[in-house]
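Regression report. Comparing outputs from two consecutive submissions.

Submission 1:
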Amino acid sequence: MSLDANTLAGLRRLLADSQGRNDHQLLDLVLRVAAVWRSRSLANALAQRDGLVVQHGPFAGMTYVAAATEGALLPRLIGSYESELHPHILALTQEGVDTIIDVGCAEGLARLMPQATVHAYDTDAAARQACRTLAEINGVSERVHIGETFAGGDFARFAPGRTLVFMDIEGAERDLLDPQAYPALKQLHILVETHPNPSADLTALIRGRFEASHDIVRVDLGPKTTPLPEWMLKLSHIDQLIGAWEWRLRPTPWLVMRPK
């Protein structure tokens, strides 16, 4: 598979004009552009060989769409995407959760929890459509209700102790996960991806807000152990590493929080 014209032209522009980036920043960007292209190429090859079906993990057998609205498609199809969360998600399926507030439209929860109703929200129209399509092709659309904006005051509409908040909203968790402003949060299960940045350690901030009301486990993403498709084992080691790469720019720890 050779580089497509647009990717090759973009790499040449980066190398010709660094736009003030130092050598480390430039190398990081060039490697990222090339690796994203390779990841997409391998995802296309996997889809052609095996179809758009998740191969491993708790979401195995789920039919996927041809492109992820955010992040890498390849590890989603392999089943290694955010695999560090899988034990915690599986545990919650046994803990009486019957309602999921999905802010950021994660995939697969309705199929994994057949007893649960999912209220999925995303401000991105493409993400809402992808969520709708996934629900339809996996036969769970009758239990998935899709909306655009979720307001903090809406937490009070859901049953304490039986509701899971699943949230990945690129830093906006700082405003929404505030138990002082929204006391109903103190009695809800919460899985949130935190997005620390130079101005705020959101992991520590969110954890501090809930330490009095919740038992909290921090989950950091690490090396993957999910098996690769057999044909990928014959590829270069770099390709095998790219197979598990989730396109992250920096660490984004998850907090798994259960009401005490």
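Submission 2:
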Amino acid sequence: MALASLYVNLITRTAAFEKGMAKSKRSLRSFTAQIAHTQKRLIGLAAGAIGIYAVIRATKRVIREYATFEEQMAMVSTMLDKQAMHFMPQYTKALKRMSVEFGESTDVLAKGLYDILSASVAPAKALDVLTISVKAAKGGFTSTAIAADTITTILNSYGYAAERAGYVSDILFTIIKRGKTTFAELGPNIGKVAALAAASNISLAELGAVLATLTRSIGQTDIAITGMRGVLRAFLKPSKEAIPVAEKLGITLSTTAIKAEGLYSILDKLSKATPEQVAQIAGRM
């Protein structure tokens, strides 16, 4: 009898325990679900806050860029006379389109356009030169400012029309390809020799060929161009001491001689001179 009573009591307790466990499991699942829901809400709120912050930052950046662009365009307008002011709407529209096409900020493009106009490029041709400059910058891993400055410097040095900007860009990339230099190294330095080369009756193609050879041999663009300037100055304004030294090498120090023989031929003769002779002809440079 006692055993039967104990058995019944045990069964009852077990059932109550299992019932309690089941209830606990349901409570735990409910609590877990509540935590997950709360986490989702918190994550959503955090994402929303981050999103709002990102939107605010982006908006500020856009406003800042727009203000800078407007300022740059105002500067561009100062480069135009009254007759050319009608180009301003065209410039604004084109720069916005180019910004999307080339992934360049509008204020950078506006600054490039300003530099091109300040280099005396005709307003009607300025956008063409800017487009070539941006493409050159992207292809040469340099800035639009450097590309525009380099191209317009050479255009002015040789007295080329704006239509030859593409040709100038091609010559620059040929120097980079055949020599040992980069657009970032060549751009700021080639202007130092371009005007002298043009005054010495040296074509841009010949100048490019020589610079490609020199940079490949020397390995330092600035030194190659500095040396080139020294040689050209010797032909433009030879010293009394330099003339007889050059004549011993079969070289006539005049721009007429450069035009007649070609720069490469003259440099080939100079390469056979001693360092002392070169110093006497070209000076310390």
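Expected: both submissions complete independently.
Actual: both completed, but the second showed a warning that disappeared on reload.
Relevant detail on submission 2: The chain has 13 helices and no strands.
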